[in-house]
Amino acid sequence: MSKKFIFLVPLFLFSILLRGQEEEAVTFEMKLSKPKLGLNERLRVDFTMNKDGDNFNPPDFNGFRVLMGPSQSISSSWINGVRSYSKTYSYTLAPTAQGKFTIQQATIVIEGKTYKSLPKEIEVTAAVDKPSDEMTADDVADENLHLVAEVSKTNPYLNEAISVVYKLYVSPNISVSNYQPLDNPKYNNFWSQDIKVSRLSAQNGTYQGKPYRYVVLKRVVLYPQKAGKLEIEPLSLDVTVDVPTRQRDFFGGRIYSQTNKTVSAGNRVINVKSLPVANQPADFTGAVGDFEFSVNTSKTSLNATESLQAIVEVSGKGNLKLFKLPEPELPSALEVYEPEFTEEVRTNLGGMQGKVSNSYTIVPAFRGKYPIPSISFSFFNPKTEKYESLNSEEVLINVLEGPTNGGNLTDPIVGQSSKQQVVTNGNQFNFIKLSPNLAQKGTSYFFGSARYYWLLFGPLLLIPLAIFLRKKRDAIAEDVVGNKVKRANKLAKKYLSAARKELGNKEAFYVALERALHNYLKAKLKIETSEFSKDKISELLLKKGIEESTVNEFLGLLQNCEAARYSPFSKVEMQRDYDKASEVISLMDKQL
Questions:
Q1: Averaged pLDDT of the chain
Q2: Is 162 found in the same domain as 115?
Q3: Computed from CA positions of residues 333, 335, 340, 344, in that sequence, does the dihedral angle turn out positive or negative?
Q4: Predicted local confidence at residue 225, as pLDDT
Q5: For residue 319, which of 374, 362, 275, 263 has the smallest C-alpha distance?
Q6: What's the whole-model pTM score?
Q7: What distance in Å separates the CA atoms of residue 147 and residue 182, rounded to the nearest whole number?
Q8: Which of 343, 374, 399 is the last residue of a domain?
Q9: Which distant-in-sequence residues (6+ apart) come within 8 Å of 254 by Cβ?
Q10: Are 392 and 374 in contact (CB under 8 A)?
Q11: Going by DSSP bridges, is the β-strand pair 228-232/145-151 parallel, antiparallel, or unpaired?
């Protein structure tokens, strides 16, 4: 028994090896719908391959007239862990004469090698009474319906905008009555922004040199977040097609046959180029585009304890939401608060345009002159393929009135000594008085006074008050629900104040809500803006110990912010999203 087992093992391994070789073998063949046909019949010719190829070169169909083609179809599936792939170029031919004809070889390039199909012979006879190969509705739909993904640029730089426009091409020979998306693409390794298609309107165009009507179904702007070859998954649709037949109704109108077809835009590969390492500025934070940069203050003269706003702003066209703004370096005598981030960005097929800014509230404590030094902002311009650096102008803040900084003996701007000259009065060299009058006037005794007894017994009177305050503090600490509400309200007031003011105004509310959620992440987790994709947010929050349900609720709020741009939302739904945001921020703060 053991010898038989030993003998079967090599055979089993050999069969697996043969099977793997068979799976890897490339096949390219020509298939005919029939080897013999009448002069009034149609012939379908398919050129099928099991791996994707390029540079398909069909043969000359001598003795035939091409009615339709080439049409392309792709089939891909996984069965028991094994991938099955098939790609077919199809032609519909009509014979032009009787006799025997040979369809010569077609060629295709697969994985750098050229493959040829075998020639086949066809016999054409006299016309038959009933042609048996009239094209079905499915055949006509295959020939006249195409879904195409048009990519603006296939070799962008990292963080350079590209657009994808999905168009459904329909031949005048058929009509489309309905369609249903089957699988929306997931743009992994891309920052994506859908551009709303306001209404579906048919337009005239051409496809493979033939007149067609097309409809734009979906538009999206992508910013690649990773260098190398990135795949854009296909968009798939289930389309209901009305195909005209040769039959007529009682009134002479053409009878249509209805069929459902699945069309796919196919995978698209984007070759993303890395940003050059040579000459990359030290302060570069990932900005790609064409920008302008400035640092401005609301005023340059004020008194101590008054406040001013210093605004660091970047404007232009590029990945405005995906980089970090530079931070100013301010003198220590100026009290600076956390900046308020403002975003005024619109996105179209050309990418993001607008401006982003950080507004710093500054309060000087002492009188003097304080400079805000020039700061630099660097970005990569994909048009010139070079790095560019912009420097802000130095701003001088003049604090007119207020206390002087006693610990600083030099002027904060000029660097000169702040010591004052000693003014003499001519009597600086006098004798010290040797017998001063030290008599004490109005002498009173502390012991036994009213103040003595207040200081002695006052602390004892404070003991009941301290016990009462302690019990109240413990009661507040035990009130978990109350504390949760207070914490939520406090955080909501901090991060959601702008959204609360816009309740009832859909667009402004959800823009403010999305900004508040992003600012919370930046403040708590130190997340750079370039990481604001849902997958990265989810991964990072889970690593930080946030519960999965809380993460899902947070992502759901972000999704609502995006959906609100294209869908109607009532004030009740806005209030619900506001309350949910307060609760989620509270939960995340507790779990962090």
A1: 80
A2: no
A3: negative
A4: 93
A5: 275
A6: 0.50
A7: 13
A8: 399
A9: 244, 245, 247, 248
A10: yes
A11: unpaired
Q: Are residues 156 and 256 in the same domain?
A: yes
Question: What type of residue sits at position 125?
Answer: T
Q: pLDDT value at position 132?
A: 54
**Residue with token string 């005598």:** 333
For residue 388, the cross-strand partners are 379
Tokens for 568?
């109607």
What is the pairing mode between strands 36-38 and 120-125? parallel
pLDDT tens-place string over residues 471-518: 777 776 665 555 555 554 565 566 777 777 777 777 788 888 888 888
Residue 85 confidence class, pLDDT cut points 50, 70, 90: confident
Evaluate whether 552 touches 453 at the Cβ level (below 8 Å): no
Q: Which domain holds residue 300?
A: 289-399
Is 249 a member of any domain? yes
CATH of the domain at 332: 2.60.40
Q: State whether residue 215 is helix, strand or coil.
A: strand
Amino acid identity for residue 181 in this structure: P
> How many domains would you assign to the chain?
4
Confidence of residue 282 (pLDDT cuts 50, 70, 90): very high
Rounded to 5 degrees, φ, ψ at 88 are -135, 135
Same domain, 263 and 145: yes
Q: Which two tokens stand for residue 331?
A: 């003198």
Amino acid symbol at 373? P
Answer yes or no: is 334 within a domain. yes
